Amino acid sequence: MRNFSSGFKNLVKSITLFTFFIFSLPTLVCAQTTAVDTSKAAASTVATAPSGDAAAGEALFKANCTSCHALNKRVLGPALAGVNNRHNEAWLIKWIKNSPAMVASGDKEAVKIYEEYNKAAMTPFPQFSDDDVKNILAYIKVEGDKGPVDKTDGPKLPPSADAGYSNYMIFGLIAVVIVAFLVILLLNKVIGTLERLLLKRDNAGITLLEDEQLDENHQPKDKLYIARKLVKNKKLVFFVVLCGVLTLGSFGWMDLWNTGVQTGYQPVQPIKFSHQLHAGTNQIKCQYCHSSAWKSKHASIPSANVCMNCHKYVQATEKYNGEISPEIKKIYAALDYNPETQKYGENTRPIEWIRIHNLPDLAYFNHSQHVKVAGIECEKCHGPIKEMAEVYQYSPLTMKWCINCHRVTEVNSKGNAYYDKVLAAHEKIKKGEKVTAAVLGGLECGKCHY
Ligand code: HEC
Ligand code: HEC
Ligand code: HEC
Ligand code: HEC
Ligand code: HEC
Ligand code: HEC
User: Cα(90)–Cα(109) distance, rounded to whole angstroms?
Assistant: First the structure.
């Protein structure tokens, strides 16, 4: 009878332990994630918990803020990670909607930051609703808490939409593994208990080992006994192998997803042309060099003649002891231009810029449709170009990336002849009238011609 009761006690103990683990798991995981938040919040009295939608905020942030802000490094404006702790929400909403007005009104916090940043005024965003701003703040909070994204073999990349494995996936995987382990542990215990109950019916003490396998201190004689026992345990071995396969498999899987994704690609260009200097410091508009982005499928790279509009005279001689910059000489060489006689020769050759962004041929992407029709800023897809001394690929250009944006970006159909046509066609269909292909745009040249 005692046998049975102690066996039963063991069983109950196992079950209790098991349930305890199961219930404590989610709390443990949560505690870990919130520990960071609460410690940060505790550090500051104005901490706010943003209530917005981070996914919607991301789109707004990337479209409007990345030209001047990154989350974890200073750009033109401050690094925004942790900004929710530096100011309260109401202040931030007011600031983002119209910071110059706040500075002008003499708000102490506003004036302080303004002066700290050399009185570089931030663009006001009066078009944002409070919810828009809350969404952005939520995004800053979620992304900012993840810390800087550091790639040792590439340029420092701002966190991109496709940043890889989510925390949920990893926690989920760990949880599954732990639960599986506990189940096996429990089953083992139950089986062990039942075996002992059957085999050692008349022995009061419950020991795993036979007496002759124990020394006088009731310790196993064979030091490796436990290890041997574990290796013999088929379930355990199977479990360990399963874990190995799962781990390797999931890393392999993620690797496969990321093959062909060229985020961060930054080839060495034949001339050290800097967007930071031209589009940033000198504020030359993208249009000046990439005007076809508004008119056609391609954005295209400007020809050397465009460079000559300025570089006939701008020779950066101060930097090279009165000599013409060797980089600018490369433009002259491409056009066979002689700066002394100011004459062009016959011996021209194109500058061989190395293409950075490259979709496979099977995908059709049209710049003017996105830039002109949808009104999307270049920076939204190409990142903070104005800060790049050398351009690198900012977005992954994966199908997922295209699709995700199409899911969230609202189309501006007002004053767009195409949508007027679509609406007119809908009306006709509703009324049961004849609709021709021409009504749907079938006469437009671009529908049939590249
Ligand atoms: C034209 C550049 C520019 C753009 C675009 C811009 N900012 Fe700023 N931002 C600044 C500068 C510069 C400062 C520093 C204060 C100043 O000089 O006015 C700043 C400061 C801030 C601050 C205060 C930070 C702190 O540490 O106190 C917040 C918050 C902020 N910006 C959010 C945003 C958000 C959100 C967006 C996009 C909707 C945005 N900014 C777009 C330039 C910009
Ligand atoms: C003075 C002319 C000039 C201006 C202004 C300029 N660019 Fe460029 N851009 C170039 C040249 C030349 C290249 C090719 C060399 C390189 O990749 O750096 C280039 C390359 C690029 C590329 C990479 C193309 C590829 O190979 O995939 C992008 C993206 C780009 N520019 C975007 C912009 C944006 C956005 C702006 C405005 C903020 C801008 N550029 C302003 C001249 C210019
Ligand atoms: C609208 C005027 C303008 C255009 C167009 C322009 N640049 Fe420049 N570029 C400048 C200015 C201004 C500087 C700064 C010169 C200095 O540092 O003294 C500069 C500097 C440079 C430098 C750095 C020189 C050095 O050694 O410091 C290079 C290289 C250069 N440009 C290449 C190009 C190329 C290639 C193009 C054509 C795709 C181009 N630029 C088009 C105005 C222009
Ligand atoms: C909706 C996202 C998006 C926007 C907005 C966008 N681009 Fe692009 N850009 C791309 C993609 C995708 C490619 C690669 C196209 C390909 O390989 O066919 C690209 C390629 C380029 C190239 C390389 C040459 C070419 O045409 O393939 C340049 C230069 C460029 N973009 C400049 C710009 C400029 C300047 C703007 C703003 C006027 C801009 N882009 C706006 C997504 C975008
Ligand atoms: C920043 C957001 C954004 C990204 C990124 C983006 N698109 Fe778009 N795309 C739009 C919007 C907005 C429209 C609708 C424009 C309009 O009003 O016609 C659009 C329209 C299109 C259309 C026309 C659809 C139709 O029904 O006529 C095609 C094709 C397209 N995109 C291809 C791509 C491809 C390919 C990529 C990725 C390489 C891409 N887009 C990335 C925002 C985006
Ligand atoms: C419904 C489809 C469609 C539309 C819309 C369309 N085309 Fe065409 N086009 C074609 C086809 C197919 C050919 C080639 C057949 C041929 O050569 O006879 C062609 C041939 C041409 C050619 C002759 C090319 C050559 O090498 O001989 C020109 C030029 C042309 N189209 C211009 C236009 C212009 C401009 C528009 C807009 C006003 C337009 N097309 C609209 C289908 C279309």
Answer: 13
Q: Is 311 in the pocket of ligand 3 (CB under 6 A)?
A: yes
Contacting residues for 337 by C-beta, under 8 A, at least 6 apart? 308, 331, 343, 344, 345
Q: Name residues whose C-beta falls within 8 Å of residue 190's C-beta, 6 or more positions apart in sequence.
A: 11, 14
Considering only residues 47 and 145, tell me which one the structure prediction assigns the higher pLDDT.
Answer: 145
For the chain, give the percent of residues with pLDDT over 70.
Answer: 79
If one residue of 307, 318, 354 were mutated to test the ligand 3 pocket, choosing by the most ligand atoms within 8 A of its CB, it would be 307
Q: Say if ligand 3 is within 6 A of residue 203 CB.
A: no
Side-chain half-sphere of 449: how many Cα atoms within 13 Å?
A: 5
Q: Ligand 5 pocket, 140 CB below 6 A?
A: no
In Å, how far are 305, 326, 335 from 348, measured between CA atoms?
11, 18, 5
Distance 370 CA to ligand 5 centre (A): 6
Q: Are 67 and 379 in contact (CB under 8 A)?
A: yes
The phi, psi pair for 205, rounded to 5°, reads -75, 145
With bands split at pLDDT 50, 70 and 90, how would you rate the model's confidence at 167?
low
In this structure, are residues 177 and 245 in contact, taking their beta carbons and an 8 Å threshold? no
